[in-house]
Structure formats: structure tokens, C-alpha cells
């Protein structure tokens, strides 16, 4: 009995189990998410009648949609077309007028004004200007700006504030563009306002500190992450830290960690920067340090975001996905890390290292908006040397510049124009012309006749066209972008230079490999003179050089445009007054752009060992000339804000140069004649 | 299937747990015989159940998979959903939405490979209370669009894992739907949640009379991919501006026409223009005559000719869109809407669009650089348009023509292209570290092929103090190796010496036997005797500069090596070596030839002794194209040629040959430059060049005629005053 009862109990139990399972299974089936049901395709179905479906627009509807009258811009909001009257900019040129400050002004402000006045956009006449610039006051309250006289609702005005204003804006900004540091994304009007970087108080006006990056690739021992701290410093964390940098709750459990004092720059591969506006200052620090900024959902607009492609130098990540971001940073391929690091340095140096660059970049952006199709192409903004040094007035095709041939897969033109400066004695340099014209790469010879005497009527017959440009008198005219120059390369010569065809040919071949540098025969070297506490230079033969003389040098014609249109007038005047300065100035300019030394090629030692070319007569420095010349280098350092010249210890020779092998094998054999 | 099995296992485990809990109350009282009987019975029942359960899961999926390709349905058979008149309507779009405020990025947290997952709601037909449809069910283009998404890598059919949701409610054309009811239909989608992470596609927004520039359907937080946004309605970084698709793209065959000047300088082909604009255009034509052509619709077409395909100027009839290929510039004026389908036709014809539509947000402007493909002219400057265009240099115009056609091919030509570009943009916002670069979006394939992005593009002269790491590859020539170590250690800038011991059968000499030098010396043992071990990016390399040197190169002087390092500092992105070699094109054989003669040119340097950046070790080991790395290891030759190819290909620059040195001659070895200079060697090296050139698909090597010497090399100058007096011989 009992066993029967037990049996039945067990049977009942089993039956109930069965029922439960049978009941649960279908539920389980439902719980298994989105399994393809019988008879459905995973994905969007292929409809039987897909061919019969109507188009979203009926034939003829698109063109027929009713025309409508032009509409007026909505009040309050502004965009470029609606709120800026570009027709005031005659000829498409930006002219900027700066309101003079009322009352005493601070030193920083005075220097900012000076730097705007030094730019090629400045004008002293408010009537002529198409942009009226109002500097946000930086003085303590009580001197807040008053409504300027030509305000007109803010039309064609730019309100520039490098630092947060100490007093609230006393009047409505209306249609004025606002250039301010790290504007919030909510109020920023894309394509109208300009986002500036948040600069520290003591940011230099000119010169500026170079980027901190000393090597391309990160040092193997360097920390992966540095995290911006609220107090203004950084702390670094090892590669193995998990998400702790976000909440800071893991101070104790993760590897070696260093806290740097407030002023120090982070030494890490990536710098995590929280999205608060107050952290924008960290952004610039990271940029200078070559530490790749990782911005966590920034609530502010990145500086100059209108033109700078920040994806090449920084990572904007979502702060809500910390683990994914960290994993992505750890797995980032070396190639990308390298590219990002280098771009931080380029951007820092091109647009952010000084107040002057920030202001000039701002004006350049507005000029670009006015120019429309003739503005800087994106490439010019985003690769070295940067838009401030690549003028779109020269060309809008990157391959016309010396800097972008590798990126563009192009080559400079295989011809050069010889530019011969004929000075005081006024004798046609017949031998030189014949030597140069003998080169198969010579396209034309231009003679800049600067002698008081009328140009000589007798010129040698040459295979290439010879043009005489009469009239240039000033030394800086030598570097004027004459429209007759139609080749990429210029061979700059002096009447008393002496070159052989072989030397010209070889130097030109070298230049084609380095179109952005100057390739010359005679060199000087600069040095720091402890005794005089200043820079000096020497023409003596040495193991190093940093300047090539323009009395015989190849360089790109773009440098003529840059010399004439971008250098401050004061420096060009200096070159006119002290002729040797012209050489130094040109070398300063090219070195500042390329950050590389010039190139020296072999030169027969026939005569004039590196004499100052433009000083009439005399094969060597006269002692009394020295002070003026030495002084000019220091004045230029002051003008540039730093010493751009870089020394080199090498010379490029033909492959078989002076090798003990038959001369018949050598292509440039006459180069070796004593 | 995996998931089903998981569930079954769980059932078993749960059951046995329960058995254990209940068991003890009954079982101890039973006899052992009975107990075995019951346990067996129970197990059988349980097994049966499991079998049933498995059966329930397995067979269905197998059946259905065979069914998939068979089952077809009609659009008319989709389920009907009745919307009550008082059902919820979403809020209007929130203009302040940004990705970090309105987009729920957590939903994308699961997605592997930095790719968002997109779910498409199934198609339904929505009717109102009275049974009147809310809109036409679906248009051909929207069906194509959803098909394209469904076929792409973005698609998922798992709603719980999706990060982006695309409703199947067609809102491409606002004119073909009822605004309020469509909004209600959106609001009842199963995951709507105020529209978070929902993406709507709309090409024709607004309707008469005021033609809003964004879709009028209230959509709360949903992202809008819209054609014809203005800066007032476009939420920067949130919405996506898309083109208005031109149906002519699929209907008409229009082969590419090369860039260059064309018959008309400026052409206008739009038919429905505001009279003010038409007056302006007519005035332009009157002023500039033949160069400008203003077309209008044809009034007297014969029956059966589609009006959309013809344009007329007075009595002249032109085929559209073919006529666009006759013009250099084509006007794209705004109509009632800012976005115009004509833009697509114009781009396709390789005609540079002149966009006259103030505040229009151009399609995909977040990623496409329209300055390269179009000219934007403010409406108030319309009368000056001719002179503005005339001022552009010819080269720039041709560039723009090419760019215009490329934009059409890549992003305009089909609904699929538009859909995928939109998803890519959203994907790039969510995974910015994996985003596509400006160049990838904008450079046409021809430029991508020809251009080189130098990985070490920053002009930077590394500080001399950093020094270099010498890497000596050796097998068993210990004596010669020790001499090399001693010689190299005399170079002032050497900071570390790394010996790569490539012999697995023999141990390196004991520590005490090695020469004592002033810098750290490390020995790395390799697992296999491979040539590529010399180019491995060892962790021990702490400097950027690497000197690769063979274990028998003892003829290089300390001055020569130090000078080589200083040259490298000035050219850190190049190979800087001593003996140079050349590749030549053999016209008779029509292939490349290796040349080691006394030539006036160089295109390679031997890596028996060469300075280069350590990054190239990383490239050689991990990024060498094709099978070159293995091929070199198998042939035990040409690793130096492979390195020369790699560096030239990635930097686009030539090598730097330093000093007059022509070959590595040494007392012990019979000949250097590999094994011997005999004929077979030259043939092998030539073969390498041909092999590598075919793998790279191009000949990256650059030929130059210069070498680097110290400034005062062989100058008439006191030797003792020279920095590098002992530069060595050939």
C-alpha cells in the first residue's frame, strides 16, 4: 500500500514536473530574444511588389515646388550672410579698424593693439574698414567699454576677448561677431562667432615657447595617461589603470602615480581633460607638451574649430563610456599616436604659442570667410607650416607651394628663373649670364637693374629669354614677387657672383629634392656671443653654417611673396638700410617657416669667400661694418621674437665628388676643378 | 543556438537542485531497490523532457532557415495599426540637443569593433480612427534605404542590442504624410522613449506656405537626417545634413566627362525659380552673352516626352541632365526649399555647383569640404557671380570639377550611398577615436593613390644628447662581432648596444668574455634564425635613432659613424646609410635591374650599416605589405632592399647616402653587400626589386644625385680644425 502510495506520489510529482517544464519551455522560448521567427528574413524584407512602389517624389514635383520670396533673417540669431555686410570689404580685402581705448590701458592691451596694427589687415580709418574691432576690456571694473560710436547694432563688428571680461557686457551685442575664449557650445554660432583658446594670463605676445616634443615617438617609459586636476596640475597614471581616472576613487590601488605641480606640463602620451569650461586651460598645456588631448564631452567649442581639423590632433570622447575610451587609447596603433602627437606640436606652434598668432589666426579666419572660394584650402590650415605662413593670395593650389609636394604626390617644375641683381658699377655680368644660360634647366634670366646708370644696351646673346627690369633701387626689391617669375625655383644672383654651369645644374638638382629650403653656395654661421650678450655671425669658414647668401642661392618663388607681404614693415626697412641684413632676413624667414637649416652645395674656391654680397666692393668684412651687421641680427631676433636659424654640419655633394675614379664617369666633373 | 543550449542546461540544474531539496523527506524511508527504481524512472522522465525541450528549440530554426528564401510578402499585407485620435504626440524637436545631452550612448556600449548597431522597426500600416491611412505605406526610395541599412554591417535584428533605431515610417517627403498622425505613429514605437537614439530620414521638409527647413513632424529627441537644413534649424553635431536624392541618378546613364573648359561658362537649369532670381539670371545672360545659358521648362513639347528630361532656351531644346556636361559652372539656386535635387545632377555632370542659397547647410557638411567642390555665393552678391567665378584660376576649377564628380560617386549617386554615409557620420561621433579622416572622406581615389602622408611629418631635429642605439645582428662570428662592438663603442653619440643573437644552436659567449664598453650592452636571443630579426622593434631600443650594423662592418671610422648620426638628425624620416645602390629600368628585358656600379645616382642604401628611425622597425615587422617579410626570411636575402622600399613608400622621400664609401670591404669576409658581387647575386637582387615593386604596386624608390659630406670635406682647410677629419675612404 505504502509503496503504491509512494509510487503514485512519485508519479504525481513527475507529472507535475512535466507540466511545469512544458509550461516553462514556451516561456523560455519567448525569453530568448528576437530569434528569427519561422518565415521571416532577418533584416528588412524583400517585398514582392518592391518594383511597384512609388517614388518619394512624383515626377515633376521637385522642380515644380512653389517658388517663394527671399526671406529675411530671423531676429536675434545671426549667421554670416545675414549679419555681416561683406560688400563693405572692397576687393574682398579685410580691413580692420580698432577702436582706440578710452583712458589708460594696460601693457598687455597696448601690445595686443600693436600687434593688430602690425598686421597687414589694419587700417587707421574707420570709414575704410569693413571690420570694426572692439577689444574686451581687461582692466578692472569701472572702465568697462562704452558703446562705440559706429556701433550700428553691432553690424561688421568683432568683439574680441582673450580673457573673460571682468565686467558684464554693458550693451547688447546684437549682430556683432564674438571672438571669445572657449565659448560654450550652446551660445556659439557656428560660422559666425570665432572660438579662441583660453590663454593663460602671462601668455607671450611674440616669440613664445616652442612645443615640448623633442622626439617623434613616445619614449617607451612614459606614462600612458595624465589627468587634469581641478587645482590646475596634472597627475599621471600607469598603463594598467582602469576607469579610475574618471571618478578619482582609486587613488591608492593603481601603480606609480605622480602629481605634478600646477605649472608643470604633463609628461604622458594622452591627457584626459574633463569637459568643464574651466578645464580649457589644460587643453593648451597638453597641446604644448605634445600630450594628446582626450577631451571628455567638452561643453565648449574647440579653438578655431571652423578651420582646424581637431580630429588630427585630439580625441573628443564621450565621458559616459570610460572603459571603451580607455581601451581605445590602449589599443591605438602607433602610427596614429605618432600622427596625433606631431599634429599637437604643429598646431601649438602655428596658432597658439603667442597672442599675436591667436589674433592673426582670428583675422585670417574672417578674411577666409570674405574670400569664399579663394580662401585657404583645408590642407593649408592643417599641415605645416600653417595658414599664417601659407598665403592664399599666392595660390589656392597646394602644389604651387613648396610645402605640400609629398602630400599631393606632385613635383616642383623642372625649370628655374635666374634673377640677377646688378648694383652700383652697372656692368652687365656677361660671364655669369653665359654660365647660367648654359644650364639646361634655366627657363629665363631676369636682370634687376638697380644702378643709377641707364641699363646697358649690350647684353650677351643667350638661348633663354633675358628680361631687364629697370627701377628697383631698394635692397628689399630684390625679393619682390615679380610677375615675370613663372617658375617655382628662383636662382638669386649678384652681378659679381661667380658660378659655373655645372654648379648651377647640381644645385638645382638638389633643390628639387628640398624645394622648401634654400640651397646655396656661400655660407655664414650664427653664434651666441657671450661677450656682447647677443647674437653674432661669422663669415669665416667653419664646420657649421646656418645662413646661405642670396648672392647665389636657389629657393622657391613663394618666399618672395612671403617676404613682401607677411614680414613686418619695420624689418624690411631695416634690410633696406643695412644691405647685409637682407640676406639674414631672408634666411630668418625661411628658417622660421621650415624650422630647418639651409643646404650647402660645393662651390669652387675661385674668389670672394663668403663676402657680404650686397656691400659694394671688398672681399671680406670690413671691421667698421661689423657692428651694424651684428646689430641687425639682434634686431631681427627681437622682431621675430626668437632665433629661428638652425645650424647644419653637412654639405650635399655629387655622389662621386672627389672620388678617385675617372672623371669621365662623373656627371659634375667641372665642379672639382680647383 | 548557443543561447538555447544555455537555457536547457539551466533547466537540468534547477531540476536537480529541487530534487535534492525534496528528496531527503521521502527517499530514506524507501528500500534501496525501490529507490533505484524511482530514481531511474525519474531520470527517464527528465531525459524525455529534456529531449522534448531540445526538440522544441532545434528543429524550428532549421526549418525556418530553409524557409527564409521562400517566404515573400507584399507591402499591402503588412499589419494595420489603428491610432486613437487622442494618442500621445511627441514634443517638437529640441533645438539644444547635442550628442552628449540627448543621445543615449550607453546603448552603444555593447557594440564591438567600434561599429554602431542599427535596428529597423518592422513595416506597419498606420490608420487613424476613421481608418484613413496616415501616409502612403512606404516609398521606393525609403524601401531602398532600409534595404541598404539591413544589408550593411550596421544592421542588427536584436532590438535589445541596438544603439540606433530607424522607424519604418516613411517621412522622406513631408508632402505625402499627415503631420500629427505620423507623430503619433512614431510615439507608439516600442522603444521610442522620447525619440532617444531614433533616426529619421527626410529629404523634402516643410510644406506650403512657409516651407520650414526641417521636417515639421514633432519628433522630440530623434536625430534627423534632413535634406535642406538651414543654419537656424540644423543642430550642429546632432542632426545630419543629407542630399536630396535625384531619381535621375538611376534613370539616366551619364558617363564621366573629364575636367576642363566647356562650351558654357555658367548655366542655370532649374525651372521653378522665383521671378526675382530669374530676372537676375536673365540680366547675367544679357551681360555676358554666349558664355551664360539660362534654361527654362519647355512649353511646346510633343506628347510622351517627359518634361523632366528636357530644358529649353527660347526655341532651342536641350536634353537634361546631359546639357549640364556642357557647362563649367552650374547655378544651384534655392527654391521654396533650400535643398535641391539639381545639386546631385550638377555634381554628376562634373559641373562645379555655384550655390546661391543663404544659410543652407550643405549635404554632409560635417565631413565634406565643400570649398573643394563648389562655390558658395551669398544671395546679395548674385549679380557679381560671373566676375567671382572668372577670378578663379583654371587649375582650381579643374580640381573642383574632378572633386564634384567624386562627391557624387561616393555620396550622392544612390540611396544606399546616402544612407551609409549618414550612418558613418553618426558612427564617427560615437567612436571618435576610430573615425574616418578628412582625407578619407574628401580625397578622390586618384589623390589617395598618388599622395603620401609621411608618418614623421613634423620638422624636428632630435637633440643630439639622445644618441642612438646600435643593433648588431650576429650568428656566430664572435671575433668579428667583438671588434665591431669595440669600434662602434668609440662613437660619442652611442647610447646603447644591442646584439641580436640569431643562432639557436649555440649560446652567446659568457658575460665576462664580452668587450668592456662605456654604454649598456644587451644581448637578445631570437627564436628563429631570420633576417627580419634585425628589424624587430625591441623594447630595449629607447632612442629614436637606430644604427643597424652587420657583425663584420669594422671599416667604418668613429668620425664616419658620428657624422652619419648627425646627418640622420637633420633627416630623421629617411634612411641614412653609407654605400649607395641604384635601381634601373632595363628596357630590353622590360624590368627593374639592381646596380652597384660607380653611378652618379643613388636610390637605396645598404643596411649593413644605416641609421633610421625606430618607427620603421615597427613598420617592417607589422605593416610590411604583402608577403615580403616572409619572402625575405625564406630567401635570406634582400631585407635591406625591402627596408628601402618600405621607407620610401611611406615617406615619399629619397635615402641619404653619407660619405664617399662605396662598399663594405673587410679583411675576413670574401665580399660584402650580401654574399658576393658575382652575377648570381646581382640577378637575385634584381629579382627582389621586381618582386617588391609588384607587391607595392608601384616603384616607390626615389633617385637622387647627391650624398652628404661634412661641410669642409676635402676643402683646403687645416685637417685638425675639421669636425670630422677621419671620414674614411671608399
Plain-language structure description:
Chain A has 674 residues and is an alpha/beta fold. Chain A is 28% helix and 15% strand. In chain A, strands 14-13-12-15-20-16-21 form a seven-stranded mixed beta sheet, sandwiched between helices. The radius of gyration of chain A is 34 Å and the shape is globular. In chain A, 44% of the residues are buried. Chain B is an alpha/beta fold and 730 residues long. Helices cover 32% and strands 15% of the residues of chain B. Chain B is built from 19 helices and 25 strands. A seven-stranded mixed beta sheet of chain B has the order 17-16-15-18-23-19-24, with helices on both faces. A five-stranded parallel beta sheet of chain B has the order 9-8-12-13-14, with helices on both faces. Chain B is globular, with a radius of gyration of 36 Å. The chains are: A alpha/beta (674), B alpha/beta (730). Chains A and B meet through helix 1, helix 2, strand 11, helix 7 and helix 8 of A and helix 1, helix 2, helix 4, strand 14 and helix 10 of B. Strand 22 of chain A pairs antiparallel with strand 25 of chain B.
Amino acid at each position: 500500500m505504502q509503496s503504491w502510495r509512494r509510487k503514485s506520489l512519485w508519479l504525481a510529482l513527475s507529472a507535475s514536473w512535466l507540466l511545469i517544464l512544458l509550461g516553462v519551455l514556451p516561456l523560455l522560448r519567448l525569453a530568448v530574444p528576437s530569434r528569427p521567427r519561422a518565415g521571416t528574413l532577418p533584416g528588412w524584407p524583400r517585398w514582392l511588389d518592391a518594383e511597384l512602389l512609388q517614388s518619394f517624389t512624383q515626377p515633376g514635383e521637385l522642380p515644380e515646388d512653389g517658388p517663394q520670396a527671399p526671406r529675411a533673417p530671423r531676429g536675434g540669431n545671426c549667421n554670416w550672410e545675414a549679419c555681416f555686410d561683406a560688400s563693405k570689404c572692397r576687393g574682398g580685402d579685410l580691413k580692420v579698424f580698432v577702436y582706440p581705448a578710452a583712458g589708460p590701458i594696460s601693457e598687455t592691451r597696448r601690445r595686443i593693439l600693436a600687434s593688430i596694427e602690425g598686421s597687414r589687415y589694419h587700417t587707421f580709418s574707420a570709414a575704410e574698414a569693413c571690420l570694426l574691432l572692439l577689444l574686451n576690456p581687461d582692466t578692472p571694473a569701472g572702465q568697462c567699454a562704452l558703446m562705440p560710436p559706429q556701433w550700428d547694432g553691432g553690424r561688421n563688428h568683432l568683439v574680441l576677448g582673450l580673457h573673460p571680461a571682468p565686467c558684464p557686457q554693458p550693451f547688447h551685442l546684437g549682430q556683432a561677431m564674438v571672438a571669445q575664449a572657449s565659448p560654450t557650445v550652446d551660445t556659439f554660432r557656428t560660422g559666425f562667432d570665432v572660438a579662441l583658446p583660453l590663454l593663460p594670463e602671462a601668455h607671450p605676445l611674440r616669440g613664445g615657447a616652442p612645443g615640448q616634443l623633442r622626439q617623434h615617438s613616445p619614449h617607451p617609459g612614459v606614462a600612458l595617461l595624465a589627468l587634469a586636476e581641478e587645482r590646475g596640475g596634472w597627475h599621471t597614471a600607469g598603463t594598467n589603470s582602469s576607469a579610475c581616472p574618471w571618478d578619482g576613487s582609486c587613488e591608492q590601488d593603481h601603480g606609480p602615480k605622480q602629481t605634478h605641480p600646477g605649472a608643470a606640463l604633463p609628461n604622458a602620451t594622452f591627457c584626459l581633460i574633463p569637459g568643464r569650461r574651466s578645464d580649457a586651460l589644460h587643453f593648451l598645456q597638453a597641446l604644448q607638451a605634445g600630450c594628446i588631448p582626450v577631451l571628455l564631452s567638452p561643453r565648449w567649442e574647440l579653438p578655431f574649430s571652423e578651420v582646424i581639423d581637431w580630429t588630427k590632433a585630439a580625441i573628443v570622447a564621450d565621458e559616459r563610456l570610460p572603459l571603451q575610451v580607455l581601451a581605445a587609447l590602449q589599443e591605438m596603433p602607433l602610427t596614429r599616436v605618432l600622427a596625433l602627437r606631431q599634429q599637437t606640436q604643429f598646431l601649438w606652434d602655428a596658432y597658439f604659442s603667442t597672442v599675436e598668432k591667436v589674433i592673426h589666426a582670428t583675422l585670417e579666419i574672417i578674411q577666409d570667410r570674405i574670400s569664399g572660394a579663394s580662401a585657404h584650402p583645408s590642407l593649408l590650415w592643417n599641415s605645416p607650416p600653417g595658414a599664417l605662413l601659407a598665403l592664399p593670395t599666392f595660390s589656392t593650389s597646394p602644389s604651387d607651394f613648396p610645402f605640400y609636394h609629398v602630400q599631393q604626390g606632385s613635383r616642383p617644375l623642372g625649370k628655374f628663373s635666374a634673377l640677377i641683381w646688378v648694383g652700383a658699377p652697372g656692368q652687365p655680368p656677361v660671364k655669369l649670364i653665359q654660365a647660367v644660360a648654359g644650364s639646361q634647366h634655366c627657363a629665363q634670366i631676369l636682370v634687376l637693374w638697380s644702378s643709377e646708370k641707364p641699363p646697358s644696351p649690350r647684353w650677351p646673346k643667350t638661348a633663354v629669354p633675358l628680361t631687364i627690369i629697370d627701377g628697383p633701387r631698394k635692397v628689399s626689391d630684390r625679393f619682390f614677387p615679380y610677375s615675370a617669375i613663372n617658375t617655382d625655383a628662383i636662382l638669386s644672383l649678384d652681378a659679381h657672383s661667380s658660378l659655373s654651369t655645372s654648379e648651377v645644374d647640381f644645385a638645382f638638382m638638389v633643390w628639387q629634392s628640398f624645394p622648401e629650403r634654400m640651397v646655396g653656395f656661400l655660407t655664414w654661421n650664427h653664434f651666441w656671443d657671450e661677450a656682447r650678450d647677443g647674437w653674432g655671425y661669422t663669415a669665416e669658414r667653419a664646420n657649421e653654417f646656418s645662413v646661405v647668401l642670396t648672392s647665389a642661392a636657389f629657393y622657391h618663388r613663394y618666399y618672395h611673396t612671403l617676404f613682401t607681404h607677411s614680414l613686418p614693415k619695420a624689418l624690411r626697412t631695416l634690410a633696406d638700410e643695412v644691405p647685409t641684413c637682407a640676406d639674414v632676413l631672408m634666411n630668418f624667414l625661411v628658417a622660421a617657416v621650415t624650422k630647418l637649416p639651409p643646404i650647402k652645395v660645393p662651390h669652387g674656391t675661385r674668389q670672394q669667400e663668403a663676402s657680404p654680397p650686397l656691400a659694394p666692393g671688398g672681399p671680406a668684412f670690413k671691421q667698421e661694418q661689423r657692428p651694424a651687421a651684428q646689430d641687425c641680427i639682434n634686431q631681427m631676433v627681437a622682431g621675430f621674437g626668437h632665433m629661428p636659424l638652425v645650424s647644419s654640419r653637412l654639405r650635399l655633394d655629387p655622389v662621386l665628388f672627389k672620388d678617385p675614379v675617372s672623371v669621365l664617369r662623373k656627371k659634375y666633373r667641372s665642379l672639382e676643378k680647383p | 543556438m548557443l543561447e538555447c543550449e544555455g537555457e536547457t542546461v539551466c533547466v537540468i540544474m534547477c531540476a536537480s537542485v529541487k530534487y535534492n531539496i525534496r528528496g531527503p523527506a521521502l527517499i530514506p524511508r524507501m528500500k534501496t531497490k525501490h529507490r533505484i527504481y524511482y530514481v531511474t524512472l525519474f531520470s527517464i522522465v527528465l531525459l524525455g523532457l529534456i529531449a522534448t525541450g531540445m526538440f522544441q528549440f532545434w528543429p524550428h530554426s532549421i526549418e525556418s532557415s530553409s524557409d527564409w528564401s521562400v517566404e515573400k510578402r507584399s507591402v499591402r499585407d503588412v499589419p494595420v495599426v489603428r491610432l486613437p485620435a487622442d494618442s500621445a504626440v511627441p514634443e517638437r524637436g529640441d533645438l539644444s540637443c547635442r550628442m552628449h545631452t540627448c543621445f543615449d550612448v550607453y546603448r552603444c556600449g555593447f557594440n564591438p569593433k567600434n561599429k554602431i548597431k542599427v535596428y529597423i522597426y518592422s513595416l506597419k500600416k498606420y490608420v487613424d480612427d476613421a481608418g484613413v491611412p496616415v501616409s502612403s505605406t512606404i516609398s521606393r526610395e525609403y524601401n531602398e534605404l532600409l534595404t541598404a541599412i539591413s544589408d550593411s554591417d550596421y544592421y542588427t535584428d536584436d532590438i535589445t542590442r541596438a544603439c540606433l533605431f530607424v522607424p519604418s515610417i516613411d517621412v522622406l517627403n513631408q508632402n505625402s504624410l499627415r503631420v500629427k498622425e505620423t507623430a503619433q505613429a512614431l510615439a507608439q514605437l516600442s522603444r521610442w522613449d522620447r525619440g532617444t537614439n531614433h533616426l529619421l530620414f527626410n529629404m523634402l521638409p516643410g510644406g506650403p506656405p512657409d516651407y520650414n527647413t526641417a521636417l515639421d513632424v514633432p519628433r522630440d529627441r530623434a536625430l534627423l537626417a534632413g535634406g535642406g537644413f538651414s543654419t537656424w534649424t540644423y543642430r550642429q553635431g546632432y542632426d545630419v545634413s543629407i542630399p536630396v536624392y535625384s531619381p535621375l541618378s538611376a534613370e539616366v546613364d551619364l558617363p564621366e566627362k573629364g575636367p576642363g573648359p566647356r562650351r558654357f561658362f555658367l548655366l542655370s537649369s532649374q525651372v521653378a525659380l522665383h521671378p526675382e532670381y530669374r530676372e537676375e539670371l536673365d540680366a547675367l545672360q544679357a551681360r555676358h552673352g554666349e558664355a551664360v545659358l539660362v534654361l527654362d521648362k519647355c512649353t511646346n513639347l510633343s506628347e510622351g516626352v517627359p518634361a523632366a528630361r528636357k530644358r529649353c532656351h527660347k526655341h532651342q531644346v536641350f536634353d537634361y541632365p546631359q546639357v549640364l556636361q556642357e557647362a563649367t559652372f552650374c547655378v544651384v539656386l534655392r527654391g521654396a526649399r533650400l535643398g535641391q535635387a539639381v545639386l546631385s545632377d550638377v555634381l554628376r555632370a562634373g559641373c562645379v555647383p555655384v550655390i546661391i542659397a543663404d544659410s543652407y547647410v550643405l549635404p554632409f557638411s560635417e565631413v565634406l569640404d565643400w570649398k573643394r567642390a563648389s562655390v558658395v555665393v551669398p544671395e546679395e552678391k548674385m549679380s557679381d557671380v560671373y566676375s567671382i567665378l572668372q577670378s578663379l584660376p583654371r587649375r582650381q576649377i579643374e580640381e573642383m570639377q574632378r572633386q564634384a564628380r567624386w562627391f557624387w560617386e561616393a555620396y550622392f549617386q544612390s540611396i544606399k550611398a546616402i544612407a551609409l554615409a549618414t550612418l558613418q557620420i553618426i558612427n564617427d561621433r560615437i567612436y571618435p577615436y576610430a573615425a574616418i579622416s578628412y582625407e578619407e572622406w574628401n580625397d578622390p581615389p586618384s589623390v589617395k593613390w598618388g599622395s603620401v602622408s609621411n608618418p614623421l611629418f613634423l620638422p624636428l631635429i632630435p637633440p643630439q644628447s639622445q644618441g642612438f642605439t646600435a643593433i648588431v645582428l650576429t650568428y656566430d662570428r664572435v671575433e668579428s662581432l667583438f671588434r665591431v662592438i669595440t669600434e662602434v663603442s668609440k662613437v660619442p653619440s652611442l647610447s646603447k648596444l644591442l646584439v641580436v643573437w640569431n643562432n639557436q644552436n649555440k649560446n652567446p659567449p659568457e658575460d665576462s668574455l664580452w668587450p668592456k664598453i662605456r654604454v649598456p650592452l644587451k644581448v637578445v636571443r631570437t627564436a628563429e634564425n631570420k633576417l627580419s630579426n634585425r628589424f624587430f622593434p625591441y623594447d630595449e631600443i629607447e632612442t629614436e635613432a637606430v644604427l643597424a650594423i652587420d657583425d663584420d662592418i669594422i671599416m667604418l671610422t668613429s668620425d664616419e659613424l658620428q657624422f652619419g648620426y648627425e646627418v640622420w638628425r637633420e633627416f630623421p624620416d629617411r634612411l641614412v646609410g653609407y654605400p649607395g645602390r641604384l635601381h634601373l629600368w632595363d628596357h630590353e628585358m622590360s624590368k627593374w635591374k639592381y646596380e652597384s656600379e660607380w653611378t652618379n645616382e643613388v636610390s637605396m642604401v645598404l643596411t649593413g650599416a644605416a641609421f633610421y628611425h625606430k618607427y620603421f622597425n615597427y613598420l617592417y615587422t607589422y605593416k610590411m605589405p604583402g608577403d615580403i617579410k616572409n619572402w625575405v626570411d625564406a630567401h635570406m636575402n634582400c631585407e635591406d632592399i625591402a627596408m628601402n622600399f618600405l621607407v620610401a613608400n611611406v615617406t615619399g622621400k629619397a635615402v641619404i647616402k653619407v660619405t664617399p664609401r662605396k662598399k663594405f670591404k673587410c679583411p675576413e669576409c670574401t665580399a660584402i653587400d650580401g654574399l658576393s658581387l658575382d652575377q648570381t647575386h646581382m640577378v637575385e637582387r634584381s629579382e627582389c626589386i621586381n618582386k617588391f615593386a609588384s607587391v607595392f604596386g608601384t616603384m616607390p624608390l626615389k633617385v637622387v644625385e647627391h650624398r652628404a659630406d661634412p661641410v669642409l670635406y676635402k676643402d683646403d682647410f687645416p685637417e685638425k680644425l675639421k669636425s670630422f677629419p677621419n671620414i674614411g675612404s671608399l
